[in-house]
Design goal:
With 501 residues, this protein is of the alpha/beta class. The chain has 15 helices and 20 strands. The strands form four sheets. It has an eight-stranded mixed sheet, with helices on both faces. The structure holds ligand BES and zinc ion (2 copies). The site of one zinc ion has 5 residues, from β10.
């Protein structure tokens, strides 16, 4: 879908969208349109219950005497409450409504809003970002589409006075959206297409953007001593991989920021086999890795002024004659031994080695890991917030602020020595599940903490947010790409340029 910014001009053809504030207050473009149509807008409003409340929508089809094929009034609510996420929702909502309506183009008439703190250019740019994100589709495997479901919308135009400033504000947002789409695509792909080696190959594509990509296979990982990660993949016919991505956009010797992702390309549970009902969902168990890959793509694409490392541990957790057994003891890269009581608690085993490797090799300013780690986080927080765990208050606060700004919410949960004790094993240094049924997401985080070795660290449990079962304006149902926006914002607000460090 093409997105373009233009100065205000003559009324175009196709769908035309104008904003209306609370209490039926028309913005200048709507007033002008009302005059050219001899009052069609005011008539439509008085014939309906449309008041301009936030998110309300009123569609007027085929109004007489004008070029536009439909006029759409969109409720903005009160001027003082307008924010960028609201404009994204507007853009996303409309693109989704019009996607297969038969309409091929939509034009938003974007006016400055008196009484709002949101700058006009940002308003327009975020409206366009919402349109871009909401217009995401993954339809490569549909070979037969009914004519009425065929996408029709091809172009989005935003008419705004500050055209150049809007275009400039949109550029990094569009690059960000590309990162989000890369993540959504990778997570949506089934596990017969995306498996450790093919996912590593996708990472290699980032080299075109200047990202240095290293791929470690099983032999190299064995040499290093990554037996926690290797144990998870040992039942699979697919070879496990560890991918290290380097984006060098900052000063040569500046310590990097690091992102680590759980990349379980399919999680059957292994010998601790999962029930078959819903098991297909476990193709998303590489969602953390998917986010790290999309994030690096976004950072590279917008040439972020930061040194960033992405590390993803890629495995497939399968039951077989060579699979790891419950009760096996493995020796991790850190030297700590792990008793594997449940082979379905595999993400933490992969991360144990990936986290240790990352802090040991790169001495980063901080590490953030992302993982679809526990079903328990869905019990705690549902699908609205991701779980946040951290050993560093400053990092945790920054993540929460970045998440709120981007509409990717995180909620911090506690960690403590008393939870840590629950992971002590009778015959090894640590066991991979707690004997207690409670606090499953916290004990998982405590497990990870034993492999971060004092590095400032945060863990995002995205089991509830990596995938969505309902459509939202900027996040169609399916893979969400959760975390790409949040972490891009974290980097931009606190670790780039003059804010570096
Ligand atoms: N990949 C799952 C977690 C998960 C569950 C993600 C549901 C998304 C939706 C993880 O590997 C797992 O199986 N965790 C177990 C841990 C348990 C054995 C301690 C779980 O959550 O049941
Ligand atoms: Zn599992
Ligand atoms: Zn898993």
């Amino acid at each position: 879908m093409k997105i373009a910014f233009h100065d205000h001009g003559p009324l175009p053809s196709g769908a035309v969208v104008v904003g209306v504030l609370a209490q039926k207050q028309l913005l200048p473009s709507a007033q002008k349109l009302d005059r050219t149509t001899r009052g069609v807008i005011t008539r439509a409003i008085s014939a309906s219950r449309f008041s301009g409340a936030k998110g309300q929508c009123l569609e007027i089809l085929a109004p007489a005497h004008i070029s536009a094929s439909r006029l759409i009034l969109y409720g903005l609510g009160k001027a003082a409450n307008l924010d960028l996420l609201g404009f994204e929702a507007l853009g996303g909502d409309l693109v989704r409504r019009l996607a297969s309506s038969g309409e091929t183009e939509v034009t938003f008439l974007c006016d400055a809003v008196p009484g709002s703190k949101v700058p006009l250019a940002d308003m327009a740019a975020h409206l366009a970002l919402g349109a871009r994100l909401g217009g995401y589709r993954f339809d490569k495997y549909h070979t037969k589409v009914k004519p009425e479901a065929k996408p029709s919308l091809r172009s989005v135009a935003v008419q705004v006075a500050e055209t150049a400033a809007a275009r400039q504000a949109f550029r990094p947002l569009e690059q960000l959206a590309e990162g989000v789409f890369f993540t959504r695509d990778l997570v949506t792909e089934p596990a017969n297409v995306i498996y450790p080696e093919s996912l590593a190959k996708e990472c290699r594509k980032l080299a075109q953007l200047g990202v240095k990509v290293e791929v470690l296979g099983e032999a190299q990982m064995r040499k290093l001593g990554m037996n926690a990660l290797l144990g998870v993949g040992q039942g699979s016919a697919r070879e496990s991989q560890l991918v290290v991505m380097h984006w060098q956009g900052g000063k040569k010797n500046a310590a990097p920021v690091a992102f680590v992702g759980k990349g379980v390309c399919f999680d059957t549970g292994g010998i601790s086999l999962k029930p078959s009902q819903g098991m297909e969902e476990m193709k998303w168990d590489m969602g953390g890795a998917g986010t790290v890959i999309g994030l690096l793509r976004a950072l590279a694409k917008r040439k972020a002024k930061v040194n960033a490392i992405g590390v993803v541990g890629l495995v497939e957790n399968m039951p077989s004659g060579t699979a790891q057994r419950p009760g096996d003891v493995v020796s991790s890269l850190s030297g700590q031994t792990i008793e594997v009581l449940n082979t379905d608690a595999e993400g933490r085993l992969v991360l144990a080695d990936a986290l240790w490797y990352t802090q040991d090799r790169f001495k980063p300013q901080f590490m953030v890991d992302l993982a679809t780690l526990t079903g328990a986080i869905i019990i705690s927080l549902g699908r609205e917030y991701a779980g946040l765990f951290s050993n560093d208050d400053k990092l945790a606060e920054r993540l929460a602020a970045a998440g709120t700004a981007e509409g990717e919410l995180v909620w911090r949960l506690p960690m403590s020595d008393s939870y840590d004790k629950l992971m002590d094993s009778q015959i090894a240094d640590i066991q991979n599940i707690s004997n207690d049924r409670g606090a499953g997401s916290i004990t998982a985080a405590q497990f990870l903490k034993r492999f971060v070795n004092d590095c400032p660290w945060a863990h995002l449990d995205i089991a509830g947010t990596a995938w969505s079962k309902k459509d939202k304006a900027t996040v169609p149902k399916g893979a969400t790409g959760f975390g790409v926006r949040l972490l891009n914002r974290l980097v931009a607000d606190y670790y780039e340029g003059k804010n570096g460090g």
